[in-house]
Inverse folding.
């Protein structure tokens, strides 16, 4: 081919030379065409070559669902891409001739689709622009603006209403896809009107009949590798979705909503339609219309049962509304959906090449569509159940979770989202749940596990720094390396739970031993205030909840209270009183038992005062916000408040 | 280490020179699987000591792994992973049991064995029911987890690839191993007897290194030593664990293992060992801080052994590694059970231990299988040598161990066998060394000879060319080959030195015309001839022939410079090539220079002893001569001076001085003292400057007449005449003194070239002849005569004319080149016609 020889020429010169050659050449081919049909003209050869490639691809695509080999698929795509390119270069080797332009643009379209499918957007863009420029040179229009929107506007205008219009529009569609995939929504916005008209023209389908009418043989038409009508429909809805997500993240919810609602009636794959409903729901949720949002989520789910995100978002709404039962229900559904093997929905033919995921890559959308992993959902479910009086269920979920963590099955890990808590934490939660479900032996086993694993790693001396300091320096580090304090608190909590178990089993002696172990461990922690020497934190140093210090104090209080109660049961009232009085400062709930001991010791007035004080005390944080294993044990000996009040009443008349 | 290693070669596989490091692995109980970057996996039965099967793969094999139940083998090659059933292999290998001498079975891996396809798989590992692949894709390392039954991708973790410091250039399999905490038992699903291929690690070390989550989840942890030097780990549980970097060796990791196993292998290892390609050894141990307050930590002890490390393996206490030239063993520091000594001191001990590996004297091991202990408590290693030998290396029982008392009790026969095979290995090494020493001695001896000859010849250049102990002489002769006459110079190299010219010397002759048109490069065209020869003992001669010129194409006189050269590169051979910076040089020693002149090339047609001048056999010669003379006549229109186109030149020599010349005196004894005749004879026969004319050979007759007819190389007839003439002394003073006689040698020919050439030759010879004459005692008489004076005057006038024409030629004014030529020619003719007198 003479193309290769001409490549070094500057473009304009090349054009001239090519024109000459082409003239000679086209005469040749014409005459050949007219005289004898046997050796096909190059024009027909090219069409044939293009169509063969397209058919080959479609064949391969048809079998694609059966093969799961991604690599092979990719190699095939690369091969097709390079073949289309070769063909394209061959055709562009001669000057643009009106007869060939349709063929040429179809081949460029095919090559462009392949490039975009490989995410080579820059290459695709330059291919499209060059090809369009070349065609427009034929119509004799002058230099073109480098600014893409202006360029395409002029291109569309200069093609006018000729037969080329349609071909140029197809190329514009590809450019549109590139903008969409590279999240250049601003550019799309600028060209909105043109794109809309392109959409209307192409999707109306009137042209199709017009265009194909004069053609007689199918071999005369160069086939597109991807149906252009499907492409434009896909582009239209994806644009709506991407714009909606963008506006939503910018806080322009109502604006987003209108676009999305109009998009939901477009012809499109189910998944995309469900996305429009989902995003509408999110808009409504932002506009504080939770019920309507729920409605939208429901529609999204009805459209596409695989839309787990809708489930997740509904769950969040229920959580927001405080509807715990519904939330648990949603979590359960969400978990079971996530555990289902992802059924691959057969996408309509011709959309394989450019999946919607390729076109929808914006950050805001992916954050809206993200769903936590199945394990994380299972954990929330278990915790919710335990905290909301569905302990038996919760225990089951916890056990499921632990089993999943021990299995080699790696399902449901890929999803992003909040990471699971550390394993010892989960063990302790599960242990607490087991204890609530009155399975102290199982709880003890879990705690044993935590203790044996962690105990030998505990450092001899732990310094707890002031939260601000810790925040700045070690937070990041704490995430990675199990810091000493964290491990110590786990072991402490494990001892505490074991103490509770012994209490539950009425093994007071063992309970005292275990609580003592817990307490002894906890006093190792020195608290370091800025500028001061490390010291043992005093009980009144109440701190923000959730911090290590708060947990430490809580553990101390609970372990002392537990030991005090155990002492009470063995009638060691003196020791009991000492422990309980110490514990009150960190854990006011011990006040009732303190009063009880005082009462038994005959210090009835003090006991009454103690009880009154306890009842009047309002905790300055919710118990629910604490870890489940740090909550007041519900098993074990309990004091009946009515009984206590009766005693007070009995006492007061005297 | 005391004692010797017993090396037993089991088989030899012919792979060498593959860029991929070979690998061997014990599988199916007793089989050994080997591959070395080729398309084959060899299955060697250590029971039967023979190759039982070859698995032919569609591409270079990168790794293989055996399933825990020993039923399958996964083979990674060419972007694919295949699964081969061991039963199939066995059935292929053992199908006709009758024939014991059958070759190995061959199993070709086709697509029916395909498990899954993955690009760039470097290593495989099977952990429980998970098959892991480590692959390199573009710029990242990827660990992919597959279910080992359905090959479903469970997970894929990537790590950006670092800079790979691969200095040796060998492609090797990145070590991929699995460790688990010893407290953690394998999942109950697997039967307890089947190990899942994990190393057991001390729990505290495990927790420190891999975290509490992995420990609580009783997870196996995949350890992977990357070629970029990083040691990475990935806990398989809990799900979602990340791939993290444990340490960086900063050189490709060759080996990762665990050592310090207690309780006879069933316990746990206390130490992780990683070895880098350049010899960096990292020991990872749990260290307890001091009793008071010191923080516990994980100790990373780094040391360096002399590398490069080709492969390694580890047992309870020792690290075995091969540098390719030797197999070494390194005692890993054993820790005291309480492990709380002062840590500084301990680390020093560790460092010291890491620096003193001891040699096992086994060379060229490139791959090692993990050591096993035989019943006699000997450590046995399986190794693969660079030449593809599968070797079993039995280590001597360590004295410090419990083994020493057992050592004498080993069966005698076995000891002897081991000893013999060890000797065999040592013998092989010794033979190789011996050969090397021998060849070096040989080279030195030859170099010595070369130097002797160099000094000999170099010393002679100072004393003069006359009597070189090594020199060349030559004979010029006309030979007729394929209807073409050509002048051949036969050179004879004469070694009269006491040294032998050995193989490697080359005689070089460069023949270049003395005068002649300069070639394009400004150098005179010369022909080089070299003749390598195989040794020339003292007193021996070497005769070589070289063509000087074909008839009519000669440009005489020709000088032939002879030299001897010696190529050092040829002597040192490959060693010189291997030596950096040494230019493979060549010693060149000039011998002597021979001159072939017109007289040598003169073909005498009538040796004036009465015979008719022999007709030249070919008439075309005469025709050619005729044509040539015609052409000459046409070309030289200006030279109309000579009668019938004949030119002549003559030389007169005083007969007296000729008589004095020694060379002629010899002939005087038996021949009449006809000076002219003897001069002519001498001129035609004498070997001037070592060159003689070959025409007289076999022709013993002396000249009878003082006229010799001949032809010059171009075929022109030439006449040489020698006669005694009386020198005319002019008009006055004749009476007083006897007329001095002179011998006039006249050269006549139709060709100017021949006349000039012969004249020049005759002159040169007479000069040489007169030099041999004894110095006259005193000037017998004063030749104060007019003759010489006239001659002198004439010469001066001619000189003036020459200068004039040169000046005008140089300035190019007024005079055309034609006139310059004309005047020069006339000068020349005048010079020739008035014969020069040599007194």
């Amino acid at each position: 081919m003479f193309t290769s020889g001409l490549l070094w020429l500057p473009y304009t010169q090349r054009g001239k030379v090519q024109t000459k050659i082409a003239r000679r050449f086209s005469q040749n081919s014409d005459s050949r065409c007219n005289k004898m049909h046997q050796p096909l003209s190059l024009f027909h050869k090219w069409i044939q070559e293009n169509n063969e490639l397209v058919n080959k691809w479609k064949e391969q695509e048809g079998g694609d669902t059966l093969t799961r080999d991604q690599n092979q698929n990719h190699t095939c795509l690369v091969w097709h891409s390079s073949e289309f390119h070769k063909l394209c270069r061959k055709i562009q080797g001669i000057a643009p001739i009106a007869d060939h332009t349709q063929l040429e643009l179809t081949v460029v379209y095919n090559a462009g689709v392949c490039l975009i499918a490989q995410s080579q957007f820059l290459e695709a863009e330059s291919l499209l622009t060059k090809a369009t420029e070349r065609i427009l040179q034929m119509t004799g229009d002058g230099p073109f603006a480098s600014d893409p929107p202006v360029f395409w506007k002029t291109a569309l205008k200069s093609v006018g209403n000729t037969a080329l219009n349609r071909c140029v529009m197809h190329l514009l569609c590809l450019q549109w896809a590139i903008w969409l995939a590279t999240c250049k929504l601003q550019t799309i916005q600028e060209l909105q009107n043109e794109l809309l008209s392109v959409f209307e023209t192409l999707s109306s389908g009137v042209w199709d009949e017009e265009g194909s009418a004069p053609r007689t043989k199918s071999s005369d038409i160069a086939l597109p590798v991807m149906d252009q009508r499907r492409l434009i429909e896909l582009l239209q809805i994806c644009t709506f979705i991407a714009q909606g997500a963008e506006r939503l993240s910018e806080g322009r919810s109502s604006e987003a909503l209108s676009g999305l609602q109009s998009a939901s009636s477009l012809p499109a794959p189910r998944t995309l339609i469900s996305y429009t409903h989902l995003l509408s729901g999110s808009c409504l949720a932002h506009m504080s219309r939770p019920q309507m949002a729920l409605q939208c989520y429901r529609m999204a789910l009805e459209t596409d049962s695989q839309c787990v995100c809708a489930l997740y978002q509904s769950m969040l709404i229920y959580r927001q509304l405080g509807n715990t039962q519904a939330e648990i229900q949603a979590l359960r559904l969400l978990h079971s959906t996530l555990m289902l093997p992802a059924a691959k929905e057969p996408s309509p033919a011709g959309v394989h090449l450019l999946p919607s995921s390729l076109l929808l890559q914006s950050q805001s959308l992916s954050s809206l569509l993200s769903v936590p992993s199945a394990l994380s959902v299972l954990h929330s479910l278990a915790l919710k159940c335990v905290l909301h009086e569905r302990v038996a269920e919760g225990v089951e979920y916890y056990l499921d979770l632990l089993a999943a963590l021990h299995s080699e099955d790696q399902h449901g890990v890929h999803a992003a989202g909040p990471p699971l808590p550390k394993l010892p934490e989960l063990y302790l939660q599960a242990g607490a749940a087991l204890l609530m479900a009155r399975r102290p032996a199982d709880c003890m086993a879990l705690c044993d596990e935590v203790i044996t694993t962690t105990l030998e790693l505990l450092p001899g001396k732990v310094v707890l720094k002031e939260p601000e300091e810790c925040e700045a320096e070690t937070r990041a580090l704490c995430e990675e390396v199990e810091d000493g304090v964290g491990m110590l608190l786990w072991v402490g909590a494990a001892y505490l739970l074991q103490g509770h178990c012994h209490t539950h089993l009425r093994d007071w002696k063992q309970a005292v031993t275990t609580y003592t172990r817990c307490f002894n461990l906890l006093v190792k922690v020195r608290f370091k205030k800025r500028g001061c020497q490390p010291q043992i934190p005093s009980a009144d140093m109440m701190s923000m909840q959730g911090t290590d210090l708060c947990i430490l104090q809580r553990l101390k209080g609970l372990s002392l209270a537990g030991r005090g109660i155990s002492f009470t049961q063995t009638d060691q009232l003196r020791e009991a009183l000492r422990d309980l009085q110490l514990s009150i400062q960190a854990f006011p709930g011990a006040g009732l038992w303190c009063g009880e001991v005082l009462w038994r010791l005959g210090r009835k007035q003090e006991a009454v005062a103690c009880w009154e004080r306890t009842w009047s005390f309002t905790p300055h944080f919710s118990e629910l916000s604490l870890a489940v294993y740090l909550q007041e044990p519900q098993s074990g000996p309990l004091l009946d408040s009515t009984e206590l009040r009766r005693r007070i009443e009995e006492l007061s008349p005297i | 280490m005391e004692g010797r290693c017993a090396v037993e070669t089991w088989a030899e596989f012919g792979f060498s020179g593959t860029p991929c490091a070979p690998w061997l692995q014990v599988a199916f109980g007793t089989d050994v699987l080997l591959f070395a970057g080729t398309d084959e996996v060899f299955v060697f039965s250590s029971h039967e000591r023979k190759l039982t099967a070859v698995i032919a793969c569609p591409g270079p094999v990168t790794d293989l792994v055996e399933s825990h139940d020993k039923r399958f083998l996964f083979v990674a090659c060419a972007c694919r992973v295949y699964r081969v059933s061991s039963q199939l292999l066995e059935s292929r290998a053992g199908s006709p049991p009758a024939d014991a001498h059958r070759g190995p079975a061959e199993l070709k891996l086709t697509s029916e064995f395909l498990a899954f396809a993955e690009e760039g798989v470097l290593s495989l590992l099977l952990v429980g029911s998970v098959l892991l692949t480590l692959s390199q894709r573009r710029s990242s390392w990827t660990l992919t987890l597959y279910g080992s039954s359905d090959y479903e991708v469970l997970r894929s973790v990537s790590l950006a690839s670092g800079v790979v410091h691969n200095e040796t250039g060998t492609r090797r399999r990145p070590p991929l191993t699995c460790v688990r905490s010893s407290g953690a038992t394998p999942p109950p699903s697997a039967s307890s007897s089947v190990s899942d291929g994990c190393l057991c690690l001390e729990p505290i070390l495990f927790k420190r290194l891999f975290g509490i989550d992995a420990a609580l989840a009783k997870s196996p942890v995949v350890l992977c030593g990357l070629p970029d030097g990083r040691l990475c780990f990935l806990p398989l549980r809990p799900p979602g664990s990340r791939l993290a970097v444990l340490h960086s060796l900063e050189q490709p990791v060759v080996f990762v293992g665990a050592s310090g196993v207690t309780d006879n292998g069933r316990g746990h290892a206390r130490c992780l060992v990683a070895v880098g390609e350049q010899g960096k050894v990292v020991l990872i141990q749990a260290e307890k801080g001091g009793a008071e307050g010191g923080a516990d930590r994980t100790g990373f002890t780094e040391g360096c052994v002399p590398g490069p490390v080709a492969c390694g393996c580890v047992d309870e206490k020792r690290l075995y590694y091969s540098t390719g030239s030797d197999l070494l063993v390194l005692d890993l520091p054993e820790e005291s059970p309480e492990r709380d000594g002062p840590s500084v001191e301990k680390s020093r001990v560790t460092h010291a231990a890491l620096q003193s590996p001891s040699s096992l004297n086994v060379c060229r091991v490139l791959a090692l299988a993990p050591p096993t202990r035989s019943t006699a408590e000997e450590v046995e290693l399986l190794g693969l040598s660079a030449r593809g030998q599968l070797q079993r290396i039995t280590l001597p029982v360590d004295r410090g161990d419990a083994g020493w008392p057992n050592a004498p009790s080993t069966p005698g026969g076995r000891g002897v066998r081991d000893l013999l095979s060890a000797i065999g290995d040592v013998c092989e090494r010794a033979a190789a060394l011996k050969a090397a020493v021998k060849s070096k001695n040989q080279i030195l001896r030859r170099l010595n000879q070369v130097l002797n000859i160099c000094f000999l010849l170099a010393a002679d250049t100072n004393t003069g060319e006359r009597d070189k102990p090594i020199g060349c002489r030559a004979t010029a002769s006309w030979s007729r080959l394929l209807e073409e006459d050509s002048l051949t110079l036969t050179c004879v190299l004469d070694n009269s030195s006491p040294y032998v010219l050995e193989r490697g010397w080359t005689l070089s002759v460069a023949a270049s015309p003395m005068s002649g048109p300069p070639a394009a490069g400004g150098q005179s065209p010369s022909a080089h001839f070299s003749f390598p020869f195989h040794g020339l003992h003292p007193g021996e001669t070497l005769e070589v022939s070289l063509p000087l010129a074909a008839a009519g194409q000669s440009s005489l006189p020709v000088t032939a410079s002879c030299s001897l050269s010696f190529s050092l590169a040829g002597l040192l051979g490959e060693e010189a090539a291997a030596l950096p910076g040494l230019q493979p040089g060549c010693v060149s020693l000039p011998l002597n220079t021979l001159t072939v002149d017109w007289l040598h090339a003169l073909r005498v047609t009538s040796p004036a002893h009465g015979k008719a001048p022999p007709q030249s056999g070919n008439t075309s010669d005469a025709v050619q001569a005729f044509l040539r003379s015609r052409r000459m006549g046409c070309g030289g229109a200006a030279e109309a001076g000579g009668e019938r186109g004949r030119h002549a030149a003559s030389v007169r020599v005083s007969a007296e001085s000729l008589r004095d010349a020694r060379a002629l005196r010899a002939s005087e004894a038996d021949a009449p003292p006809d000076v002219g005749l003897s001069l002519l004879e001498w001129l035609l026969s004498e070997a001037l400057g070592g060159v003689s004319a070959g025409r007289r050979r076999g022709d013993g007759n002396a000249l009878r007449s003082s006229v010799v007819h001949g032809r010059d190389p171009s075929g022109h007839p030439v006449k040489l005449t020698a006669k005694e003439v009386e020198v005319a002394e002019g008009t006055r003073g004749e009476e007083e003194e006897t007329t001095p006689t002179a011998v006039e040698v006249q050269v006549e020919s139709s060709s100017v070239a021949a006349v000039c050439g012969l004249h020049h030759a005759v002159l040169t010879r007479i000069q040489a002849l007169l030099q041999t004459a004894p110095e006259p005692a005193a000037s017998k008489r004063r030749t104060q005569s007019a003759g010489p004076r006239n001659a002198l005057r004439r010469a001066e006038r001619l000189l003036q004319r020459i200068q004039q024409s040169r000046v005008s030629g140089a300035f190019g004014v007024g005079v055309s080149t034609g006139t310059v030529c004309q005047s020069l020619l006339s000068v020349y003719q005048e010079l020739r016609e008035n014969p020069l007198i040599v007194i």
Summary: Chain B touches chain A at residues 79, 117-119, 128-130, 145, 154-155, 183, 187, 203-204, 207-208, 211-213, 215-218, 236-240, 289, 292-296 (CB under 8 Å). The mean pLDDT of chain B is 71. The longest strand of chain B covers residues 470-481. The two ends of chain B are 95 Å apart (CA to CA).
